[in-house]
Amino acid sequence: MGILAGKRALVTGVASDRSIAWGIAQTMRREGAELAFTYPNERLKERVVKFASACDSEIVLPCDVSTDESIDALFEELSQHWEHFDILVHSIAFAPKEALEGDFLENISRESFNIAHDISSYSLSALAKGARPMMRGRNGAIVTLSYLGAERAMPNYNVMGLAKASLEANMRYLAYTLGPEGTRVNAVSAGPIRTLAAAGIGDFRRMLEKVEQTAPLRKNVTTEEVGNAATFLCSDFASGITGEVLYVDAGYNIIG
Ligand code: 0WD
C-alpha cells in the first residue's frame, strides 16, 4: 500500500509530459492517491484528459487562475465528484517572456509585475480559499513549486524572482491560517528542469549546466525526484511539517 492510499489529490499545472506537475501526479498515483486534474484552456484539454486517463482519472476540469469565476466553477464542479479531498498541488506560474530576460530594470513593467504576481502567487491563495471547505479537518496538505530565484538575484529570472518570494510568503501565511484546521502548506524549491515554462526564461541552458557542474550531487534533478518530495510532504509521514521550503535541487542552494 502506498503512502497516499485513501487520499484524494487535485493536481493543477500539467501542461506536457515534462511538467513538474506530471512528475508529481505520477508519483502520487504510484503511492495510491486518487487524482483529479485541471487544464487552463481548451487547447490543453485533450492532452490533460490523456494524462488523467493514464492515472486512472476521469475528473478533468477547466481552471484559468486569472479569473475568480473560473476558480469558483472549479470547486463547484469538483464538489459534484468529491465531497472532500486531501491534497492540492499548485504548479502554476506565468510572466510575460520579455520580463524574463536581460536587464531587470529595463524589462520590468507594472503590467508584467502584476501578471507574474497574479498568476504565480495570488493563484495559490485563491485556490486555497476555494479548496478550504473541502479540505478542512482532514489532515490534508497543499504543496506549491518555488525556485531559488525567490531568495537570490539570479540572471534572467527577474520579475519571477519577486513573484516566487511572494509565493513563499503566501505559503507561510496559508500554513499559519490553515494549520488550526489540520491543513499543512509547504513548498518544494526545485532545481532547473527543462519544461514549457522554463523555455520562457532567458539562457536556461546555462542554468542547467551550472547546476550540473557545481551542485554537490553534480546533476540536475528530475520531475520524478520533485514528485517524490512533494508526495512525501503531502503524506502523513510529513505530519509535523508545515510552512517549509524543501529544496530538491541536488544541493545547489547550499553552495556559496
Ligand atoms: O525549472 C523549472 N522548470 C522550475 C519550475 C524550477 C522551479 C520551480 N518551477 C515551478 C514553476 O515556476 C511553476 O510554478 O514549477 C511550476 C510548474 O512549472 P513547470 O512544470 O516548469 O512548467 P509547465 O509544464 O509549463 O507548467 C506550468 C503551467 C502552465 O503551463 P503553460 O506551459 O501552458 O504555461 O502553469 C499553468 C499551465 O498549465 N498555468 C496556468 N494554469 C491555470 N491558469 C495558468 C493560468 N492562468 N497559466 C499557467
Characterize the structure shown.
- The structure is a single chain.
- Helix 3 packs parallel to helix 5 (110-135) and helix 5 runs parallel beside helix 6.
- The chain is 43% helix and 13% strand.
- By secondary structure, the chain is of the alpha/beta class.
- A 7-stranded parallel sheet has the order 3-2-1-4-5-6-7, sandwiched between helices.
- It is built from 8 helices and 7 strands.
- The protein has helices at residues 20-30, 42-54, 68-81, 104-107, 110-135, 158-178, 204-214, 223-233; strands at residues 8-11, 34-39, 60-62, 87-90, 141-146, 184-190, 245-248.
- It has a single domain, classed as NAD(P)-binding Rossmann-like Domain (Rossmann fold), CATH 3.40.50.720.
- The longest helix has 26 residues, at 110-135.
- It starts with 7 loop residues before the first strand and ends in an 8-residue tail after the last strand.
- The model has no long low-confidence stretch (mean pLDDT 97).
- The site of ligand 0WD has 25 residues, from helix 1.
